[in-house]
Amino acid sequence: MGKNYVDIENDRGETLRYRKHVNGRGLIAHGAKVHPTAVVELGAYVEPGVQIAAGAHIGRGVWVEADAVIGPNVDIAPHAYVGSGAAIGAGSKIGVRTHVGSGARVAIGSLIGDDITIADGDSIATDKRGLHLAA
After folding, report:
1. Strands 5-9 and 99-100
2. Rounded distance, CA 23 to CA 37, Å?
3. Stated pTM of the model
């Protein structure tokens, strides 16, 4: 039987230990909290301090940086990036290759399309069709 963890060296020469999540086999860093009903697909990385709520789905190749918060039933499509300290509201959908900047906020139920960039610190809200709502 294979081991359930992987050690990876970061840019600063520090070794971080990641465990394989039971639902999807994505890599979860020590110190991250992922609800048991969440799915973190193979090839996804979840960094320390991240919180992922019940029913969330993190696609293949997604990178969730430190201290980000992913709400319940959020769906993040493959190869997206969620910056450090970002927050994704419950029921939101994040498209393929979308970049959510550090400290950015995505409102509850928002639909963010493919290949979108949300700048660091921005707040965004859309309706169920992906049309931007007035702030």
Report:
1. unpaired
2. 8
3. 0.89
